Each structure stands twice: as C-alpha cells, then as structure tokens.
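Sanity check record (used in CI):
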Amino acid sequence: MEIVPDTSVVIDGRVSEQIEADADPDSDVDGMGFAGATVVVPEAVVGELEAQANDGRETGWEGLEELQRLVDLADDGTVDLEYVGRRPDAVEKRDAGEGEIDALIRDVAQNREATLVTSDDVQAEVTRAKGLDVEFIEPRGRTIDRLQIENFFDEGTMSVHLKVGVKPYAKKGSIGDMHYQPIRDDLATEEELRQYADDIEEAARSSPEGFLELDEPGMSIVQFKDMRIAIARPPFSDAREITAVRPIVKTELDDYEHADELRERFTEHQRGVLISGSPGAGKSTFAQAVGEFLVDADYAVKTMEKPRDLQVGPDITQYTALGGSMEKTADSLLMVRPDYTIYDEVRKTDDFEVFADMRLAGVGMVGVVHATRAVDALQRLIGRVELGLIPQIVDTVVYIEAGEVHTVYDVTTEVKVPQGLMEEDLARPVIVVRDFETGQPEYEIYTFNRQVVTVPLNEDDDDQDSGVDRLAKQEVEREIRAIARGHVDVELRGPNNAVVWVEDDDIPQVIGKGGGRITDVENRLGIDIDVRTLEEKPTGPSGGPQTDSGGSQQGEIVQPEVTSRHVIVPLDGHAGDTVEVQADGEYLFTATVSRGGEIQVSRGSGIAEELERAIDRGMTITVVPS
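Expected output for PINc/VapC family ATPase:
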C-alpha cells in the first residue's frame, strides 16, 4: 500500500499518529492500516513547509518535525519512506492558497496510483472528483480554555511583553496610570517563546474563540477571546517577541461625564464623531461603550478594525480589511447600510478618506484617533479632506484623558469675519469649534492668504500675543517684507492698528507714490499701518529694540535645511509636539512635529518663503512649545 500525505496532515502530525496506532495494539487511536505502507512524500510538501519555516511560521516547523518522525519510523522498519516529484517554484509557493501545490501533490498520487491522505476537505473533494483514492482525516481540534501565556496575567495586568534574552515585562495599573515593570527575574528563552507561540497559533486554528488576524513573514497577530497577541520573529524583529494585550475594564456610557447629553447627541441624528486621546487613555474603551449604547438604542452598528480587538457584544459585527483594503470594507458596508460604524483606528490618509466617504454617504461614523489635544484630532483632517466639508464629516470631538471624558467639542461652519479681523470684505467660511458644555467658541479654523490657520479664542486677556494677534502680525510682516529690502519690525497697537519700523532707505519704497502702496496693503489686510524708521523705535534697558510686554519665549535654536522641494526644520526628540517657529524671536508659524522628528514646509508656500527669507538674512531660527 502506498499513501501520499499532503501538507495539511503533515502539519497536523496525523500520519505518524496513525502509523503508531496501527503498530500499537493498545493505542486509543483507531488505526487506518498505514503500518507497513510506503509513505510517498511529495517534494512539493517539503518545499511548502520549508518556505513556511523560513518565513518564521510555526506551521512550517511543526511539519518539518513530523517529517523527522516519519524518518524515525522508517529507520525502525515500521514503514518505507520515499521523497518524489519536483519542488514547487517561487510562483507556485506564492500561490499556494490558490491550489497550485495541492495540484502537484495530486499529480504524485495519480502517477503512483496511491491513496492521498489529507485533512483539507477541499483537497479531498477535488481528489474524489478526479477519481483518485483519498483518505480524509478530521483536522486536529481541541478545547482550549486557557493559553499558557495567560499565567503572566493578574487582575491589574493590561499587557505582557516577552522577548528572547530579556526579562518578561507587563503593563499594570489602571487606565491613565499604567506602569511598565518586570514581572520575573529569569530571562525569556527561545524555546520558551516558541512553546508559547505554538500554543497561541494552535488555539487560533483550533478554537472557535480564536482566529488568525494577520499572518505575514515575521509577524502573526492572533485574536483569542478578549486578547490580542502579536508574535514577531526574525528577520522582521531582531529576536522572537510576543506581546499580549487585553482590556482591563469594560464600561457603559453612563459611567462617563456628560452621558445624558452625549446620548441625546448621538440619537438626535447620525453624526460624525472623533474619539481622541493619547495612547492608553481609554479611547477604545469609550468607543465600545458608545457602540453598546447605540445597539441598545435600536441602531444597527458595525465596526471596521485591523486588527479586530474592540470588546463588543454579538449584536455588533466586526469587520476587518477586505483583501487588505479598508476601502473595500467600506464599499461592502455601504451595501449593508449600518446606522453607525465604529472605525478603529483612523491613522493614515487613506483611513481619513474612507471615514469621510462613508460619512458623506450618510452613515454615522465614530472614529478613534491618536491626539494629544482635542483640537489636534480635528486638525488631522486638514489637508486630507476639503476644509469646507470638515463639519459635515466630523461634528463632534470627544477627548479622553485617563479614562474620563475630558473635553467635548461641537464643530460647525459659519460665514463670518474671523474674530479679531474687522473689515466686512474679510468675511469667509469659518469652522467654529465650541465647547459642548458651555457653548463658548474655543477655536476658529479658516483660510487666510491661501493658508489654513487654526486660531485659539478666549485666551487670557493679559496675553497680548493672542492667536489672532500673531496671525495679524505675521501677515503685516509678510506684506511689508515683500516690499522692503532691510529689517522689518511690527507692533500691533489694537485690533485695527499696527506700527511698522523699517530702514530709512525703505521708507519711500514701502509708502509708495502718494502713499498708494501702503494704502493697498491696508486695504488688503483691513488694518491701519503707521510706517516709521527703525531709529524711531523705542529701546529697552539694554539699548536694543524693546520687546512686547508678552515677550517671546526662549526657544531651541535650529538649523533648517533647504532642499529642492521642502524647507526642513530638524527637531529630534519632539515628535508629536506642537511648536511655534520664530525668527529672531518673531513668530513665523505653528506646526506639529512629525514622527520622524522634523517639520517639512513645502517650498513655494507663503510660510516657506518667509522662512527662507529669514534664513537668507542670517536671522536666528528658534522653536518654542506652542
């Protein structure tokens, strides 16, 4: 008798199990008569297992261990063992999921007139359809109540972090007060982590409570019950690593401040909501509470997650990226037409575009985003969607801090003159961000001189350098510096007045014939400008120019780099911070530092031109926290 095992039964270890059962009369396993048979292993099976092992997948290692057991059985004389056929090429291994390797295995069984042995029901049905003999062995299954890695968890543990050669660590505490601490003195070993990984991946394959969310060379992500487990392997990581995360609390909307008002707001009509906060602040926990409330309020709710780890009830269907694309998931959901969709996490431009498309299609959307301030969540939409559409996409921002609702913003659009500007011809669409509790405007967002600006309102009255003042001062400086060749200083004397000091030689150029040039500037900006020479400017005690009473903060000196496309301001160690960029202490612009620790300003923009002008004049460029 000749049998040809395919990859599925080799990975499961079922061939050696059946052979040993036939050879042992006292075995609890019913044998299939494989003892004494010739086991014909296709090289296609070996190639597929080798590829999986090279990718760091545990299935590959398990299959290779089964092949070694078959060698041992052949050495004992229990079976004969042969390797036949050809190895699959790179394309066939890549398309293994399309059945290319299964076809090579069937060819071996047909050529040898042997019985194909499989645990793959599709392979079994295709083999029968081709008129070949097949033995189907039920896939190995087990009931899994607990993973080995759960032994590291106690009631206050949110996550466990294991890495070869490092002490096991855990994050313990409560939301907003987590501490990363070692939980064992002994270092984790390669064998230990491989054992944990085998247990986790077998649970994902065998248990109805688990599934493999992602399986790529070097990284697997498993969802088992309420745990999300990431398994990283070389060469993707420098050493084998396992990170297991679970929620430590489940809340209801009633547990949060403003619960009554938020319930009314969510049910008044379908809305666009951004739930924001720092990592670990409790954003996802709040999103789960919102989802459960909406279901109880008779709304159809779905989620979009990659990976799926929101702890929601069975009434909420959780979707992941369809074919690796959230855009395809969104297209499918638009056919389902949920009342609300929870999008966790909204990070990249594609995510914001999908969120916007679904919201504009009439679906209520709840997005979870990382942000260090409530207004930062809204600013992440700027440049990704048309400015005027933002209030249609997001009308509510909820900021979570230490597990509590810290701030709620209401977002609307008005056509008005921005606060601090006076001329009627400066009226424009303005996004007004109001505190949900008090109804007071907190920010205005609008386009000014082709730039999108976010201006804070209701600042301390003693702070003479308010957001509007800085903006007005910046625009006056920009206009005058475009005319003057020398140094320019600007001081605001009120909402409608400014004094400009320039070099003596620049006075005629700035004022223009009959005052025409400065009048044009005044008309464009809606502000009266008094032009004086720098010698007329009052000096401080040191003899230099007198600074505003609010004086510029002492900043960190930086050396911008001008490339063909950008002006780059390096700011190592400030990733995610919002800072002001100044030249000789004068405000230029506000920006958020990228993850790479820099600010990039596109050349050709007004901000870049002003920054380049400051660099060319040898001015000191500094940054200060915003």
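Residues 540-553 have pLDDT under 50 and may be disordered. If this sentence no longer matches the regenerated tokens, the check is flagged for review.
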